[in-house]
Amino acid sequence: GSRAACAVLIETIRSIAASDKKHGELYFAFTTLGEVGNMGAEVAANVIAPSCAIVVDGIQAYDTPDVPDELKISTLGGGAVISGIDAKTVFAPARVDEAIKCAEQNGIRYQYVVRQSQVGEGAVVQRALGGSECVGISIPTRYKKSASETVCEKDIENVKALISALI
């Protein structure tokens, strides 16, 4: 999940560098300490002070046959995950709508998640220095935070395409 998100950001930077498309001021923060209150993301958000942020991470794919449908958050192979909320964040509705519209207009496969119990970096990014709008774009990850994390290459490509289209 997190390593795949780093790879997506690196590939996005490479794509931007290779293109002729003009961008405003962009920052890419690769943060640590997610397990102890997202302190890395908090420091980055306070230093950068973004007006808008795209928070990229892995999200649990509880999609095995033994999991009841009502507990399934995302599905491996289902596309990029656009989050409406997490345990401590209500993502900016306008940014969430923009991400969904962007995915649909560009034929990017996505999943919309309106509930999840994990706490992501969005919570601290959203509240830094008086607040900023943010949207969560995630990679479905089965067995997250284990030695056998599993992601789908197509999901990674969809996340990369969505981020590139948004910026």
Descriptive report:
The radius of gyration is 15 Å and the shape is globular. Strands 1-4-2-3 form a four-stranded mixed sheet. It has 167 residues and is α/β, with parallel strands linked by helices. The chain is built from five helices and four strands; from the N terminus they run ααββαβαβα.
Summing up helix and strand content along with how strands pair, one would put the structural category as alpha/beta
- Spatial extent as radius of gyration: 15 Å
Strand content: 15-25%
- How many E-type strands? 4
In terms of per-residue confidence, which ranges show pLDDT below 50 for 5 or more consecutive residues?
none
Q: What spatial form do the alpha-carbon principal axes imply?
A: globular
Q: What summary fits the major beta sheet?
A: 4 strands, mixed
Helix-strand topology string: HHEEHEHEH
End-to-end Cα distance, whole Å, is 22 Å
Helix content: 25-40%
Strand order of the largest sheet: 1-4-2-3
Number of helices: 5
pLDDT average, as an integer?
83
Provide a compact summary of the structure:
The protein contains 5 helices and 4 strands, in the order ααββαβαβα. The chain is α/β, with parallel strands linked by helices and 167 residues long.
Keyword list:
alpha/beta; 5 helices; 4 strands
Write the layout of secondary structure elements.
Layout: H1 2-18, H2 39-48, E1 52-60, E2 80-83, H3 93-105, E3 110-113, H4 122-127, E4 133-141, H5 153-166
Parallel strand pairs: 1-4, 2-3
Antiparallel strand pairs: 2-4
Helix pairs in contact: 1-5
